[in-house]
Specification:
Three copies of one chain form a homotrimer.
Chain A lengths: L25 H17 L14 E6 L4 H13 L3 E5 L12 H10 L4 E6 L4 H8 L5 E7 L5 H15 L6 E5 L6 H12 L4 E5 L15 E3 L2 H5 L4 E4 L15 H8 L3 H4 L7 E3 L12 H4 L6 H20 L4
Parallel strand pairs in A: 1-2, 1-3, 3-4, 5-6, 5-8, 6-7, 8-9
Helix pairs in contact in A: 1-5, 1-11, 2-11, 5-6, 5-11
Chain lengths: 320, 320, 320
């Protein structure tokens, strides 16, 4: 999907779009995490605003509905003092038969500065980045099964916050990895940041063998998967997959792969438990774990705002 | 529903959430009305903005749709310079099976400062106030049949504006009181502010005898109900109740309880007529009354913005 | 529809509402275009904001859905630093049976400064302008088949930008003119600005003979219609008209009236091609033309923001 030159970087190697964690150099990942850490403090101030994007127009283009993700981007953009325009794309011109690229050309002509794009088709944000005007920056807010890079980056922020160093960690990702753009973005970023052991844990239907090509260790057995792990990333089990050929039932899944206090006891004593949310209590995670002392699920949300502020401010500052 | 200590007040007796007019001390009610009166002037200025909530994030959480009420809160928050996030809750995570408290925990983690909550279930804003982070303030924008405290407060503002003193008034509330959170909020506030005679006027199905426990005089007869009243509060008759067992027909209701110029002539010559809107012309109120010289229905709307600004600025200034 | 005195102007002849290009004096049209030209530069600045409407409340009242038009007004208002309130009117009080004028009276009481109104019924913005409070200004964002004056004005801006002088031009408007509020607004403005030849091009069903009463030359033949034209305005063919009694088929229409490079060769060598968008590629316009060197469709969008900023800032500055 990547063209020969990384479309996310300009000729000086600076970030101009955020499309995927794949292909992002470690220096850029670190720049984003370092910048996010300065923004985290902004959220705790009396006045939670900085003027970095004042007068910029940020368009939320959610071709696929996601109130939660859209909200985090809207908050991040407003804390940077941007003007935010939410487009109800489903009800708009695309419905009148206008092509994606015509819609993008029109919105660019409104002197947009940034598009935050969620789309059900993998690659849509790349297409937009390739065709939009040079002054417009694109952030991928999730495309098909492909990538969800800001979620990947907030996961890296969370891990760094609690574990400091990536180069001695064991990270287990558990559940429906094959359909998960979050897992894919996590694996690329963890690899670049030097995590020595990444495990993908789940049944063959959800964790196919060819995931090994991404450099991960595939574990069919939950005990093997989380033993001595420093970080456990639980994925959301999509309700629509339940009872399909892929999965027998929620109860069956929970029995084998649901994270309970008993299973968690196999991990390192100071292991952290992460989840991109929204959680399915009793399906992929037990309430005692979700609300327990290992859980960093709510800090992930807080870090997510700071990471999105970092991404938006960095790309807005770099010329194509 | 109230826990032992009033959950709306901190240990210094200061307002930290607005959940109900029930249990609010007269001093707090008066503080809100006095503050609103300073904000009323802001709305008449060339630049209708004050920086009191600058950099604060106000989330409109409307689990039940109400464009009008949401709009008044949005305007009030923006005139206080807050960042406003409108969440289309019906389309969001709760639809994915996430619990109310998980949704709230997530939004709190986004460093929200205030939740404005409308919910079809009585008590939902209390539950949220009890479980949200200490830095978050909750305003009830209407919960089930229970309370609609900002409407109650704007009604008090309107009465004080036109009548100055509460302690010599007769106030008649007419119509569907049993289903009305507005009536309930009005009755609590009127009682605390010292109104000596509060009348509830309507048929047994809409004004049950046990309303007397709230200290109101129940009147089945409209003439008795509004005779010599200083203030008449007409309630909206919900269309969905018409033709049910509770109510024969709109025409029948209007004949007995609809406010016409003839019936209004029974009230004091300087009586004011109020209505929370939207009005049903010819159902609970005659157009000649709604548009006549006794009507203060549109000033209520203007006062409502100032009252909501007052509530938000007061609670944002008090620590839990 | 116009009352004796032009309801758009105050007693000093200054613009207080924008309802139609019909009846606007040339001096007012020129004032809008000149002001827009100063705002065009704002959109190219690092910080795309001016404080002219700071603290003003602009309400987008879209009784008929149009994400694209609403977005352009929202951007324009935010670049003027206004607070923008988007009302989802379809889901709001009007749905509860409230009349248009009661809704307007209520919103006025919230101390609105401006209503941007889109309505499926011709004349609705006039009704609102006649009944709203004196401090409120109304902008027609499209009413029925009647008028779409900001589109008309941005078309004039585009023509002036590329052609400098109106008084020696031939302008051809092609397609479904009878249903087009854009065409109507264009014809009035072009006439007032002194364009000597305006042609309406299309079949009898879409371009009836009585259009001649507006002073236009009616052409049934496309070659006759665009020969030696300086400006060609293509109109969008509404999908819902296809296959009806009015129109045989999209293919048939394109054959006769679709703008192809071959037909465009009949116009002046430096002719410009305009379209209000969204375009139907291969129905009214060939992609080679839409994306070709004569096309100014995307500049129209950019100019549209500046023109809307001009209209809003001018009317907000004039007292009723």
């Amino acid at each position: 999907m990547l063209s020969r030159r990384n479309p996310q970087l300009n000729s000086h190697g600076e970030l101009i779009h955020l499309l995927s964690t794949e292909g992002l150099p470690r220096a850029v990942l670190t720049q984003i995490l370092d910048t996010a850490s300065t923004f985290l403090a902004v959220g705790e101030r009396e006045i939670k605003k900085v003027p970095l994007l004042r007068g910029k127009s940020v368009f939320n283009l959610f071709f696929e509905n996601s109130t939660r993700t859209r909200t985090t981007f809207e908050i991040a953009a407003k804390r940077l003092s941007a003007d935010v325009i939410n487009l109800d794309i489903a009800r708009s011109s695309t419905a009148k038969g206008e092509s994606l690229l015509d819609t993008i050309a029109n919105l660019s002509a409104m002197q947009a500065d940034m598009f935050v794009v969620r789309h059900s088709e993998s690659g849509a944000p790349y297409l937009i980045a390739q065709h939009c005007a040079p002054h417009v920056h694109v952030v991928n807010a999730g495309d098909g099964r492909h990538a969800h890079p800001t979620q990947g980056l907030l996961d890296m922020y969370t891990i760094r916050h609690f574990k400091k160093d990536f180069t001695n960690l064991t990270v287990a990702i558990v559940g429906d990895i094959v359909h998960s753009r979050v897992a894919r973005s996590d694996i690329h970023a963890l690899t670049t940041l030097g995590v020595p052991e990444i495990r993908a844990v789940g049944p063959t239907t959800l964790v196919p063998d060819n995931l090994r090509e991404m450099g991960v260790r595939v574990c069919r057995d939950m005990a093997e998967g989380i033993r001595d792990a420093d970080v456990i990333i639980m994925l959301r089990l999509q309700n629509e997959r339940m009872g399909s050929a892929l999965l027998p039932s929620a109860g069956e899944f929970f029995k084998h792969y649901g994270l309970t206090p008993e299973k968690l006891a196999l991990a390192k004593p100071d292991a952290i438990v992460m989840h991109p949310g929204p959680i399915n209590r009793g399906v992929e995670i037990d309430s005692a774990v979700a609300d327990g002392r290992h859980s960093v699920i709510l800090p992930q949300v807080t870090f997510g705002i700071a990471v999105r502020m970092a991404v938006m401010s960095i790309i807005a500052g770099n010329d194509a």
